[in-house]
Amino acid sequence: MIETETMVPSTASTGTPWVASKRAKRAKGFDVLFSGLTFLSGWGTVALLLLIGLEVGYAALPAMRQFGFHFLVGMQWDPVNDQYGALPLIYGTMVSAALALLISTPLGVAIAIFLTEDYLHHKLRSFCKFLVELLAAIPSVIYGLWGIYVVIPITTPLGNWLNAHFGWIPFFSTPASGPGFLPASFVLAIMILPTIAALSGAALKTTPQALKEGASALGATRWDVILQITLPIAASGIFGAVVLALGRAMGETMALAMLVGNNNQISASLFAPANTIASLLANSFGEASGLEVASLMYLSFILMALTLGINAVAEVILERSGATKKHL
Amino acid sequence: MKKILALTIAAVLSVCSVHADTITLNASGATFPAPLYGRWFAEYSKAHPDVRINYQGIGSGAGIKSFTDGLTDFGASDAAMTDAEIAKVTTGGVVLLPMTAGSIVLSYNLPGVTDSIKLPRDVYPAIFLGEITKWNDPKIAAANPGVKLPDMPITVAYRADGSGTTFNFTNHLSAISADFKAKVGGGKLVKFPVGVGGKGNDGVAALIKQTPGTIGYVEFGYAMGVKLPMATLQNQAGKFVAPTPESGSAALGAVDMPANLRAFVTDPAGDASYPIVTFTWWLCHTDYTSKPGVADAIKALAAWCLTDGQKLSPGLGYLPLPDSVLTKVQAAAGTIK
């Protein structure tokens, strides 16, 4: 989706004719062909996106007719009686993603600051950067396995202890059942860490050197410069990075299907099992039939709309932050 | 999307079947018997190099879909096709062949408990309804004198993905508990009121192994393979029976197989019967005249699986079909043309 958003404007500006006029006719023909090709592939991507949306929406029609907007607030997901409602799934998707952001935003921004300011020798710095980016290359299912065999055995006793001693706090109100919000969000946080770190780093780098040097010349410490110059200027870029990471987190499937507990309920407790849209989709398509398929398509449609919307917002924010930098 | 998927699969399949001399049978469906089918087809192809069988374990529902859409030569499902589903098959007709069977067991993680725990008929549906929540509940304790049950909450583990295992397990629970039938019901994916969901048998097994106090349902062969403890269950006759190949076969023997070979063993009779067993079916056409050679290949394959193949079942944790069922299935397979 990110590629789509950035490709369109760049292809639209490819076919500028003034260079071609200086060249031979053959080269001109080649130019026309090439710009036509980029035009086609650019708009083809947009068309593909629209077609997918249409196809999903069309397949979801029976469920849309049957449940309408009540689908969004329905509490049941009951294939036996053909009753479908998405609220526990939307809740689970939003809460697990929000919890993941809560963990990974401070971490990611801290990593970005550490790797963009001159804390490390530049060789070591690029090595660390490489390691952080490598986190993005680990397959989702590996994160899921790591969650099952490493994270859950840590979070379960911790959760049970918190429940026993602080059970009156709603967040700790159930004993830990193994899989649940806490391990799922923790693993999710690590999965989106590279997105936040890399994009925040890019935002931090755009702070003009002159401003930083100026502040230092006025007696600001390094700490002052980071807090009062670099971060405020990069703020909108960092915010864009976080929103983009939110979109990623909401669409994440495999690791969540393995860790979230797959129980369609709404519980305030961090240790209770829950479910997300993507996880339910992955789990139930194989054996679904009839109205269940339409309802799953309706869910896909909702998830697509949510992530598309969030990505679009993130792109706009990132674009603006980039633009304001250039004028400084 | 369905059409695109269908076209893609068709394209892939047509590429696969270009061998001139050999005949390739394409099949897909249930994951539950997939390990056994894999073994069967490998052994069969070794003895008959001119026949190749591609079996994809994609789930019973998807297996029925592919078979109905004509993408496969035969399908496989843990739930026999319903009349409505059979009516959707426009050409070739449908014959359902039970090919093997299996038990579903309740596995658990109870530290310190070494004996197989006994669960009465009124207890295990209540556990899956979330009504019995502690391992030292008086009802469980009464059935297990001498066993020191821990004061530990029960965590229920179930299949999060739609599956034939869930279908058979929940239909059994619905048959023995009116309460379960009213509150949850039987299906491939149901709304369990409590618990955590794992993906696939391995997912449920991982949940059980990871968290002390967890109980979940998995296939016998799987539980045997990963050495999970299995509960002894009370059957219709009131006897406590441990899951073994013998008790499973006893349950199958108690079934009177109808002419359409569609029998769901939701609550088998007999003193020695293990209560949760299921057949699993091949879905074949009665008429393959549009595909030359396929009918003979399927008939020969089925005949082999129903004789030599059955001997491989126990080793992998499946139940050989009783003779009374075998003769009926062989007769039905013979009608394919």
Tell me about this structure.
The complex is a heterodimer of chains A (328) and B (337). Chain A is mainly α and 328 residues long. Chain A has twelve helices and two strands. Chain A has a two-stranded antiparallel sheet. In chain A, helix 7 crosses helix 9. With 337 residues, chain B is an alpha/beta fold. Chain B has an eight-stranded mixed β-sheet with strand order 2-1-3-11-4-8-6-7. A three-stranded mixed β-sheet of chain B has the order 5-9-10, with no helix packed on it. In chain B, helix 2 links the parallel strand 1 and strand 2. In chain B, helix 12 runs antiparallel to helix 13. Chain B contains 13 helices and eleven strands. About 2% of the residues of chain B have low confidence. The interface between A and B is large, with 36 and 36 residues.
Q: What attributes characterize this protein structure?
A:
heterodimer; A: 328 residues; mainly alpha; two-stranded antiparallel sheet; flat; disordered N terminus; B: 337 residues; alpha/beta; eight-stranded mixed sheet; 13 helices
Strand order of the largest sheet of chain B: 2-1-3-11-4-8-6-7
**DSSP summary, beta strand count of chain A:** 2
Structural class of chain A: mainly alpha
Order of helices and strands of chain B: HEHEHEHEEHHEHHEHEHEEHEHH
How large is the radius of gyration of chain A?
24 Å
Tell me the strand order in the biggest sheet of chain A: 1-2
Shape of chain B: elongated
Task: Report the β-strand fraction of chain B as a percent range.
Answer: 15-25%
- Helix proportion of residues of chain B, in percent? 25-40%
Separate helix tally of chain B? 13
Described by the principal axes of the CA atoms, the overall outline of chain A is flat
Quickly count the helices of chain A.
12
